[in-house]
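Task: encode each sequence below as structure tokens.

Item 1
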Amino acid sequence: MSEFDIVGKSYPQIDGMQKAMGKTKFVTDLVLPGMLYGRTLRSPYPHAIIKNIDTSRAKALAGVKAVVTYADTPGIKFGPRSEDWTIFAGEKARFHGDEIAAVAAIDEDTAEEALELIEVEYEALPFVVDPLEAMQAEAPLVHDDKPGNIAAEFKVEAGDVDQAFKDSDIIYEDRYYLNQVYQAYMEPMATLADVDLSGRITMWTGTQIPNMMRMTYAKALGIAPDNIRVIVPDYGGAFGGKMENNIHLVAAVLAQKAQAPVKLVNTRYDDFIAGNPRVPMYIDIKLGATKEGLLTGKEVQVVGAAGARLVYAMVIVATACYRVDSLYRFQHVRSKGYTVYTNTVPTACFRGFGNSQMTFVLESALDMIADQLNLDPAELRIKNGIGPNETSIHGWKINSSGLKDCVTQATEKADWQEKRQKKEPLKGIGLSCCNHVSGNRPFAREFDGGAGIVRIGRDGRVTVYHGESDMGQGQKTTFAQIAAERLGVPLEMIHVADVDTDISPFGLGSFATRGTLMGGNGVLAAANDAFGQLAGVAAEMLEANPADIECRKGKFYAQGTPEKYLPFNEVAAQATFSRHGAPVVGTGFYEPPTVLPDPETKYGNISPAYPFACQIAEVEVDADTGQVTVTNFVGAHDVGRAINPMATEGQIRGGVTQGLGWTLMENMAYENGKIINADFVDYIVPSALDVPDIKPILVEPIEPNGPYGAKGIGEPALNPTMSAITNAIYDATGIRIKELPVSPEKILAELKKKGGM
């Protein structure tokens, strides 16, 4: 008999059939009686004074029920990290797409017509798009109170970096640029807001952080957090993009004004120009090593563009500065980061959260060092890779590390040695590693754990409540498996409820690869509590000791006597009757053994567990067109115990595909301060024809802090992809790519410099 019945087994998503049959109602599908449709008027200028707004013609249009501007809001400055937001632009518009006004009407066509009737008088101002230019003395200020457009600075230093470089046999220095890219989720941002007679607001919206969003928005609206309820139905993806955004607040203000429910759905164009795409970064790196390939010192400077307001860019820049320091045994590091305002769309979270940007730079630099030292790049990673039961330079306690196994298994699967030795013209193979977190204590500071509620009804039906929203990654299925395993029931007896801030535990949300570990531990704790209550009832019915009670495959029995059992539903019914109708409700929480980093030194243990990975890409380069084709891909990931191997492998395939798009084709292009490819005609994402055979490998060192030994997979699936591909391009051509995306034009230009190969 295997150790587990449910955990470690592959299952399709529990809501997969519902989605496949088109029966799932996403946010955009929701309808309430008397519902109105909202639309937002956005600034056509990247920077401008708003001299006057005339909404009279829009208000007079038949079918229009509300028109709102800055004057209809409390005018409170707010924001999740810095109070530089307002719901609508007041005196100035600070980016092309800034919210100027909004309307609510009886249908979408009327709402769109009303927008055209709003007259706004602007005075265009000088603007700045590039963060390096924004830091110059002569650059226009995005916010008058931020000299040099510096929104935030970050510094960390450990060891003696200058001496480390003196002791180095080789030093590599260069500048890299990571471009701005769009999350490209399936469903645009959308929200449905309603206001009851007491003034309490209910929002149905696809958000990763319903509870933290509620706190931020309460500040913006000048109301108590308890006067906002957030319900999270199924929604079509996020990848970090659906944290906070003004769309939800605009819908709320419209609902308040119209005294009716208002649904506001971004057009895809709106989503491009006013979403929260990835933070573009300039990264300077200096990396030292001995002739034996031991890393000595690392110094980086990161300059990241926040856009016109600070969302999470400062935290993302900080992450880029120092998270990779715990991938290898660094002893001497120095990092400086600048988060810079620009007259562009506000930037924020995207799968990888700054780690992906720095992983690209570090892993590119490592390959250059390996090349100069004539070392196998895989050997270089193994030699320096951090191992289990080590503490990194910043205090991260690595309980389990499968990094070495990831490299070993990936290189074996990819025939690494054979393919490197058997060189073919314009064909190459490249490798990249990464680390990540399973939770991030500094993000919320107060806590970073998880909680759960498990309710068992009279008929034995189990409902799981949690605070971490499912954006399509399969989190509901993972939580169901954890609960089913602990309770000893088949998976089909578990229902996982949508997040509702009135009912669900206060969860921080789905980010930082924290769902499986933090949320899963919370669900496990609640299931433990519920099981203990049922075991007491079963013990009375079986005339046994409660400590001896077990349940497996829906049957309660005393240890050693599985033939004498009680069905799960009978025990649940007895428990309900004995409590005069009250259901069994188990609650529990998980408090991770993390340490909030010191404000000055940044030393502390930010996560209870750390996933690792090694990815290998093979490419072919067309000398005539410059086209790069990824022909094969291997991704070995340390995930702890894989709760659902099929879902975990799916996450790897999805992350690699997303990274392939970023590397070879995706780029948000600006002209005159405006995004000029804000649609899927001009913004190119990978199709099925672009994706190679992706071979996932699950490396499963049991993590003592994870539920059933699990870690996480969401973000590490993407982090190393870009550098694995560009390292393969270097192997094929000798061209070091330092700026994404890798366009055919760039390749052709470099090939021409090298004499055409």
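Item 2
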Amino acid sequence: MSDAEKRTFTDEEALSFHKHPVPGKIAIAPTKPMATQRDLSLAYSPGVAVPVLKIAEDPEAAYDYTSKGNLVAVISNGTAILGLGNLGALASKPVMEGKSVLFKRFADVDSIDIEVSATDPDEIITVVKNIGVTFGGINLEDIKAPECFRIETELQELLDVPVFHDDQHGTAIISAAGLINACAITGRDISQVKVVLNGAGAAGIATLELIKAMGASPENVIACDSKGVIYRGRPNDMNQWKSAHAVETDARTLADAMAGADVFIGLSAKGALTQEMVKSMADRPIIFAMANPDPEITPEEVHAVRADAIVATGRSDYPNQVNNVLGFPYIFRGAMDVRARRVNMEMKIACAQALAQLAREDVPDEVAAAYHGTQLKFGPQYIIPTPFDPRLIAYIPPFVAQAAMDTGVARRPITDMDAYRASLAQRLDPTAAFLQKLQGAVLKAPKKRIVFAEGEEPTVIRAAHAFEAAGLGHAVLVGREELVKANMVEAGLDPAETKLEIVNARVSRHNPEFVDFLYERLSRQGYLKRDVQRLVNQDRNSFAASMVSLGYADGMVTGVTRSYDQVLEEVLRVVDPEPDGRIMGMSVVLAKGHTLFIADTSITEMPDAEELVEIAVEAARTVKTLGYEPRVAFMSYSTFGNPMGMRSEKVRDAVAMLDMMDVDFEYEGEMTPVLALDPSKRVNYPFMRLNGPANVLIMPAIHSASISTQLVQALGGATVIGPMLLGLTKSVQIAPLSASVARVLQMATLAAYEQDLAETQA
């Protein structure tokens, strides 16, 4: 495949992306309100004088009163831009802005790009030294070797914050992570492998230093540059950094060095590695061809002569991309969160090992979605996590932070690492805080048996595995054992290791009991006993619901393979509603730091006033059990009678009915969302009874509930969980059709949580 075929954009599209809707890729957003005179006085004069004096007394206070602790400077002089060479400081600005975007997108680190129009290392050092106090970290970028080595080393000594040249260490860390896993797959020990590196520049030297620190034997590592092998006594084109990696060897060319090599690491130029050289390597060779933008050799060229090779490149259009974005955001996140003075070798090794370990775990569906549906699993084609793995933010920084603490460079140690991981997850995932609350409650309670009705589905299998691996409870899969195990293997899971319980409805010892139970319920509803037998044998929802109804499981999750209405009908054949409850769906909307509960989003199409009351009472009860104080607002297109309409009358009647009842929650209506959510807009309605923003929204009809939740989700304004199924005597949750692993896991957690609540209330 040609480069033109592989590239997914034109030059014009690239230029348009960077130009529109406004030039560039970053902007400044205030974190404090600027709406009143008081706001201005606090933000600037005279209020700003107070933190100024505090910082003057104690410089460490800058971390408390300014953005310093979450601010990184991305600094370049443009002498080595990507693979384009020395194009000057200004030409590097698009790259540095891009770096700033990646810091924010992947690790919620604020970043400012700074381009320095100087090539003299002393000038660059002076500039950065004098502005360094502003930042919590310094990321050097695209500065050519060997000047970059000196600049980084001296700045790290001069500044009391992490200084990190990503071209060196980022590439080294990701390469090392890939090498750890490639060695594991091929049965090698890193201390024994013969490594050849081609390209002894900034990244190459840093990679050599890191893999040697991780155990690679110096005598087994040969470095090459454009002049050939770097051997001891070589008279030309040497410097102190190359000399440190010179070895005793008779090899003088790259081809000589490659004979019998286990590993090739390329940071040089397109075409540097030939197929003949690849043929000369050891069995199951490991080839990291990372020249930018074109690798030393393509994976197609490698596999044409060595089908047993593991290949990684720097390109996103091939498997095993060595992408620095896997490293620098999370290294700075972890380092800055403990206020580390520097990024040392131990922290780099910790990052590499964490990345390697993450690649061995089950890959979430979000990753597959980002890569056009490709389901990745650990092996020769997947030795490094992908940049879009949502677990990176919570997985990698704790390892970096721990290494900083263990080596004494951390000024603010983390005492509760579990809480730290939870806080990291919440930075980029608005559902994390809510789900953490649920999971915490489930983990503290006795373990529940949750039956996964569609146990043959790979998505459901992986969700069940994640549920049990997280300690949330005992997962039971309903399905044919041979097919479930085959799909486990297909999903990258070992049936012997997962040890998930599998129940085949047709051969279950409980089959006769379930048939008798269900026949008693359905015999006067047109079902013959053979019909019921067929339901138990063939309908997994009927079987799973029977397990829950008769006490063989505590909760149930289903819905992945069938429509919501169909699943609900099947469940209601087996499970009864609560005598004083209301069957309804409630969605959790997480938007801009707010948690909203919306009902009914799935059951009653056009509720009357009495049904709206029942929905409100059930929603308020559930919200209270979730740990929130319910403030219920009845939604409408009208505001307290203006204008009047058929639907608004139903809402008004519902509020009037609640007025006659003794309820223990705030409520008000009918009103628009603006009045419900923003108390400052209520000046014309002094009679309103809500003492703050509403958090429970009762919709006048199912269409308005469903449309509103889906609309805010589609526009990117919110994340929606659910709908939660409420009002049944047993804990049953229905996931959306074709739900992801994460979504099924959410519903299973809700099923376990709901059972815990039922037991508590009983």
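Check on item 2: The chain has four domains: 18-28+37-161, 169-406, 437-572, 584-727. Residues 741-761 form the longest helix (21 residues).
End of task.
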